[in-house]
Design goal:
Length: 1013
């Protein structure tokens, strides 16, 4: 297909390089420098999509991130599919394949369009809520077809072949937007010596200067841009990031940038000749100051049938002509409320096409551009507006009529103008989205007829976003912002720089025109679209207000105004103005909706970066992992860690089962000595003058008097009073502690400590560092543990000099170590902590000396049996987020009389946690010694009760004990501690009914004599 709308001269495209591409199965040609949108327009493609709700034909409207219609599916193969790509932001490359996201069997002849035509009047806002409420059982069926009929593209079904990455930056000045204000700001800050990052979402920097009619220092604006970029590129303190969108602005000047690194070259990075490189990158920038130079978005006028292909923004028409050498039609009608839009008519005429008329809503426009239009012979119709577009698959005409802005009515006779393109402009909206991400509300400016950014600490607005629209004042404002940002970050000597000379242009005052009146009411007139992406009409907003929705946030959710990838870029101001008129309120009274990240769609790949596969959920290994593998260990996953589960031996050519191996390991610990690799326990180093105070606030028990060299067991509760973790904490020095946590809970506990410190108690001087990987932990436990360890250490291990719950610095196998006299088995035990790199040496030495004692390695399954025999809990197994320390019978570990309330204390005084019928921690002894109860089995009191039976508790842990010679279990049972000796029943799914006696949860050595030997 020939490029019927391409003009022979001008633009920033390279006519020597023709690029073939495919759209909706049809082959086309474009030029290097085109976007997909400009190439489609050049080839005369009118319909690029079908609308979200009514399946109406839609064409290209804009030229940048604000484009609502040309949202396409990109990719030649299944694995390269990318949904929701704006054709206006996608650079054309050879072999590009794109298709529309809506329309079946194709966008030209869409079956669903008949539903919109015939049933559109029956699908107002709230249609789905009201129509598909009943029967409720059918909703899943309804939803399937509703989702199929809507949508903006699909995710690929095969793995992405590309890689993505993240990069972290610190800079003095972050400049968002490389238009005239952004370039001025970057140049000013960079010359002052500040470290500057300048990003812009377009393929090349320059913003509006790339298609400007104005000159700087007597040369074209584009030439000045080239010289400025060249200077900035030469400075070592400047980083330039084209094709990079600032998609999120967060607290403390943290900005996230999405850089499209190879997406402009090919489907994949390897096809572009960059194998192994990232297709996209997420930059995480912490800036001293942020200069927001994001510019403005032109607002379309809201008139009847303003969604027909051929309806475009006036600024977009100029951009396509001057930057891409594409005139998107033959005959133009321009409808405007301001002077700047006249540029589109002048550019259109200079391109050799017919300007039918300029229709200006103002009675007496008198700016310089107005005079130029009249001098060039263009007809200017004043005090009027296009009230309706005519056409089917494309605009064929415009209905024009005089309007009364005050009374919101048409006042004259309608004139019909023949045309194929209607360009409209209702003014300019500063792009305040990023500033709003911080929670700051934008402020309405009546003179500018738009919202300006609210005040954000560390942010300076410049240029169009700050309400400066003239080129001279935009440049000056950018230079000022860059200089102030540099001064605020320590470059106090920053001086004003010389700016290029501009030719001043006088613009007349714009008028406020958001919705154009029609002969009929909004509810009766042809659809007047406010949000083109979500099919939100003026009538829909009016209906929402009539149905009682007065908050703009409620109007948004009822109508879908500003939803989706559009985020209200074109429609929000018009929608708010229409709601304000219907509610008889002012626009600032109605306010604006909340803008949230992301500003434009960002790929999941870029968000994830390299954190996928092995790096998303990495496997963690202890320093002794290789030894475990060599000695036949079977492993289980505990959090991210690979922990030895049990160590099966081969006896007489037969490998032990898990049951046999665990029984052997348990008896070895109870009768001789065993060793466990406990390195995975979470270890948090806590230091600071207020460390004791902090521990007292996060643990239920007291810590003020814990002396150096001593260890204490602690319980940690959520603020609802439920147990979240437990472990021992050792006092290393007066202001220095080592906290241990459960293996799976380590990261969560560290985050919990930081959360409370940073948000609730920032005045406390205390610091946390994870040292889990720094220290390897070996637990030597059993009656012969003291004998074995005494052969390898210089420490006196005597019971009186090294008591239970003591710790000491010592050497083990000539390696500096910390030895802790604590036990998770109920036996005599020593936990040896050494620097992880020395772990294997110490471990092997223990086995060399332990041979005479029959030292036995044991795994996590044996550890579970041993601790359960002693009634020791595992958080997350014996607790489930609904268990308090009181429920566990651990009143001895609760300090109700501490001077500062610990987290969860108040919750334990709630009526619910004081109930007498709460489930309590107990032991269960099956009546049949051979039975091992199922974990999770429900406890009932009456075995004759009919189904559904009243569940009175459940089994939390259950094992066979070789030491006891029978099965045993731990459980939580209603009023369990008052039911000692009673029989309970456990019904199984196969109809079996087990009986068990409620007993103490401590099955072995209830007095604790063995661990104190």
């Amino acid at each position: 297909m020939t490029q019927t709308n391409r003009i022979d001269a001008g633009g920033r495209v390279d006519r020597s390089q023709t690029l073939e591409f495919t759209f909706n199965g049809q082959r086309y040609k474009g030029l290097k420098g085109d976007t997909l949108a400009s190439a489609l327009l050049a080839n005369g493609v009118d319909i690029v999509n079908r609308s979200f709700k009514y399946s109406r034909a839609r064409g290209i409207v804009a030229a940048g991130a604000e484009e609502p219609n040309a949202v396409v599916q990109l990719g030649a193969r299944e694995e390269t599919q990318v949904p929701n790509v704006r054709a206006t932001q996608q650079a054309l490359y050879k072999g590009l394949v794109a298709r529309s996201t809506n329309g079946w069997p194709n966008v030209q002849r869409d079956v669903m369009s008949w539903v919109g035509r015939l049933g559109g009047g029956f699908m107002p806002p709230g249609f789905y809520y009201k129509t598909f409420m009943a029967p409720a059982s059918m909703w899943m069926t309804y939803e399937k077809y509703i989702r199929k009929g809507a949508g903006l593209g699909r995710a690929p079904h095969e793995s992405d072949p590309d890689i993505y990455d993240h990069m972290h930056h610190h800079c003095d000045v972050m400049v968002v937007g490389a238009g005239p204000a952004g370039l001025g700001a970057a140049l000013s800050a960079a010359r002052a010596g500040a470290r500057v990052i300048l990003c812009d979402e377009q393929e090349e920097m320059g913003g509006s200067l790339l298609d400007s009619r104005e000159t700087l220092d007597g040369v074209s604006a584009a030439r000045w841009v080239e010289a400025t970029i060249k200077e900035l590129s030469s400075l070592e303190n400047v980083t330039l990031l084209p094709r990079t969108t600032a998609n999120g602005y967060h607290d403390h000047n943290f900005v996230t940038l999405h850089e499209r690194r190879t997406e402009h070259l090919a489907d994949t990075a390897s096809e572009a000749g960059f194998a192994g490189q990232a297709r996209a990158r997420l930059h995480r920038v912490r800036a001293g100051q942020v200069v927001l130079a994001s510019g403005t978005h032109e607002r379309p006028l809201v008139y009847a049938n303003n969604d027909l292909p051929g309806n475009m923004l006036a600024g977009a028409v100029s951009t396509y002509i001057r930057r891409y050498a594409v005139v998107p039609g033959k005959k133009l009608v321009l409808s405007t409320s301001n002077d700047h839009a006249y540029r589109a008519a002048l550019d259109w005429k200079e391109a050799g096409r017919q300007v039918v008329a300029i229709v200006d809503a103002r009675a007496n426009p008198d700016g310089d551009l107005v005079r130029q239009a009249r001098d060039s012979g263009i007809r200017v119709i004043t005090g009027s507006s296009v009230i309706e577009a005519r056409g089917g698959q494309r605009v064929t005409g415009a209905r024009v009529c005089a309007i009364d802005l005050e009374r919101f009515v048409v006042t004259g006779k309608v004139e019909e103008l023949e045309c194929d393109t209607i360009a409209s402009s209702g003014g300019y909206s500063p792009v305040v989205h990023l500033s709003s991400h911080t929670g700051t509300r934008p402020q309405w400016n009546e003179e500018l007829l738009g919202f300006l950014p609210g005040e954000v600490k560390g942010m300076i607005s410049a240029g169009g976003v700050a309400g400066h629209f003239g080129l001279d004042e935009t440049l000056a404002d950018g230079e000022r912002a860059g200089r102030q940002a540099a001064q605020a970050t320590g470059f106090e000597d920053a001086q004003a720089i010389t700016l290029p000379a501009t030719r001043g242009r006088r613009d007349g005052k714009a008028c406020a025109l958001y919705q154009v009146p029609h002969e009929k009411t909004a509810l009766r007139a042809p659809k007047q679209f406010v949000d083109l992406q979500n099919d939100v009409t003026a009538a829909g907003i009016e209906l929402a207000t009539r149905e009682g929705f007065e908050s703009i946030e409620h109007v948004k959710r009822y109508t879908a105004l500003g939803f989706g990838t559009d985020q209200g870029k074109l429609g929000n101001i018009n929608g708010m103005a229409i709601a304000a008129r219907c509610l008889d309120r002012s626009i600032p009274d109605v306010g604006t909706t909340v803008f949230r990240p992301n500003y434009t769609p960002i790929t999941f790949g870029a968000i994830v970066g390299r954190h996928c596969g092995e790096l998303f959920d990495p496997k963690r290994y202890t320093a002794l992992h290789q030894w475990h593998m060599e000695n036949g260990a079977e492993f289980e996953d505990v959090g991210q860690w690979k922990r030895p589960w049990y160590f099966p031996r081969t006896v007489n050519g037969k490998k032990e089962t898990m049951h046999e191996a665990v029984a052997r390991e348990c008896l070895a610990v109870r009768e001789k000595v065993g060793i466990l690799d406990a390195s995975t326990l979470g270890k948090i180093d806590i230091q600071g003058p207020d460390a004791r105070e902090f521990l007292g606030r996060v643990y239920t028990n007291k810590w003020a008097q814990l002396a150096p060299g001593r260890v204490r067991y602690g319980l940690m509760c959520k603020d609802d009073g439920m147990l979240m973790d437990d472990g021992t904490t050792s006092c290393l020095a007066d202001n220095h502690f080592l906290m241990t946590t459960t293996t799976g809970g380590a990261a969560g506990v560290l985050e919990w400590l930081e959360l409370w410190h940073q948000t609730e108690w920032p005045e406390l001087q205390v610091y946390f560092n994870s040292v889990t990987d720094h220290w390897a932990t070996m637990t030597v436990t059993g009656p012969d543990a003291r004998k074995l360890l005494s052969e390898l250490t210089d420490l006196d291990l005597d019971k009186e000099s090294f008591k239970f719950m003591d710790w000491r610095d010592a050497t083990v196998a000539d390696v500096p170590a910390r030895i802790f006299r604590i036990s998770f088995t109920g036996e005599l035990a020593f936990e040896i902590n050494v620097q992880a790199n020395y772990a294997l040496h110490v471990w092997k030495k223990l086995f060399e000396h332990g041979e005479k004692y029959d030292l036995t390695p044991y795994g996590t399954e044996t550890m579970h049996v041993l601790r359960a025999e002693k009634g020791l809990i595992i958080v997350g197994q014996d607790t489930d987020g609904s268990v308090t320390p009181e429920d566990l019978g651990m009143q001895w570990a609760i300090g109700y009389d501490k001077p500062f309330p610990w987290i969860g204390k108040r919750a334990l005084s709630r009526p619910d946690t004081l109930r007498g019928d709460r489930k309590q921690f107990v032991g269960l002894k099956p009546k049949d010694p051979s039975v091992v109860l199922e974990e999770g089995a429900q406890v009932v009191f009456d075995k004759e009760q009919s189904i559904p039976m009243a569940m009175k508790g459940h089994v939390t842990s259950s094992y066979y004990s070789p030491s006891l010679g029978h099965g045993f279990a731990l459980a939580v049972v209603v009023e369990g501690r008052d039911r000692m000796g009673q029989t309970v029943y456990l019904p199984m799914t196969d109809g079996t009914m087990h009986e068990a006696e409620i007993v103490s949860p401590v099955f072995i050595d209830p007095k604790g004599e063995r661990q104190n030997v």
